């Protein structure tokens, strides 16, 4: 049996992996970058954002374990996140030219689009720090022509402009082919002398296409575009002066509108956030009290529970986080007794739990209170009694309320997140403004043990149909192989690499992320009317 890792061991893995990610293409590539007089993507962001301010990275573990045959692509070759520039929250998108010269891999398209989605939902100004060789040609068929390939990025440039969302771009390295449209479709486009260049076709392609010999500077350098073509607005001698100019421009932007979410003076939790490390068991099957975990996150550790004696496998509560009023929906992971005296399993959504949550979500929409979801869910209750009680109907009601909710939603995968439970608890498909996983998270259609046994039964049945019978030893070997493969896919890093979640975080960061997310959401007034349409009752 594989030993369960403690949360401290999982955190050590998280920190080690993140330190590796921050190295981008590696020390040699960074050194080469510096010799050209350029800052790296992360150095540019560190210089740009306000001193000692918080940068919420989105997609740090994108492409983790992917593209191994291509040499890997740490963070998808682009660094994205919400940072404070001149006191204003901005979405920052910085190409990492130490990774394959910043070339666009398929996952990079998804990551860029996610950054733009967050900016559009929250009406955040966007800063593009461009340094990319363009599409990674060996994989061009996976990035070019479909709806959510790279063309969508430029479509979003145009849409954001029409929405009044400020976009400022700095051309700090290569900017080639279709990618040239991204900075030039921004409101303002700056360029760094000597290192920045922008053109639809580079010197080699121009030579092969029309036979013209031309160098990069003449074709698309800073001097040409600022003095002759007028494509770029201003040129700067180095990265830092260009970033300084961006900061000045952001400093002049008018104040954002307010959604009016309620905020009081923040009060620290009465419990230490690090107590979470002792509250979450290493074994994902073991019960624990989710209420105690929430008390480590909310202001003054105070929860005002909604229907506390009904539908107890879901905790619904009003609270404050860093002063912001929030509504919390969280899976209770310990065994509870229903009002009818029946024992109910923690982490399972029963009919009355779903019914309670649906009503609570509607109340939060009525009161204009953002929603926070904490997952540790194995799914909805099954069996004849549950079916006769209308579990599908109750589940549909909760899913309906989540799907049609118009207040901002934020999701944290604490532990298990299986099957339809993921959907009802506002998984990625239900448009959370931000979704992060703790290192203890697991996401899949069902648990590893259940899935492995099911898959084994299917495979052995297929072999028997062919007249083949497995020995007990061969059956065990097959089960172990299936389990190992499935457990790899359960990993939060598997989810983060594919942007099913925006990242993996130390649980103590949860409070800061909620506050950052609501602060961003508060800049986008909610004008849509809340309506659930036809609801099963």
Automatic annotation (TrEMBL):
GO terms for cellular component: methylcrotonoyl-CoA carboxylase complex. PROSITE patterns: COA_CT_CTER, COA_CT_NTER. InterPro entries: AcCoA_carboxyl_beta (IPR034733), ClpP/crotonase-like_dom_sf (IPR029045), COA_CT_C (IPR011763), COA_CT_N (IPR011762), MCCB/AccD1-like (IPR045190). Residues 268-528 form the CoA carboxyltransferase C-terminal domain. GO terms for molecular function: methylcrotonoyl-CoA carboxylase activity. Pfam families: Carboxyl_trans. It comes from the Bacteria. It comes from Dyadobacter luteus. PANTHER family: ACETYL, PROPIONYL, PYRUVATE, AND GLUTACONYL CARBOXYLASE-RELATED (PTHR22855), METHYLCROTONOYL-COA CARBOXYLASE BETA CHAIN, MITOCHONDRIAL (PTHR22855:SF13). This is Acyl-CoA carboxylase subunit beta. Residues 7-265 form the CoA carboxyltransferase N-terminal domain. GO terms for biological process: L-leucine catabolic process.
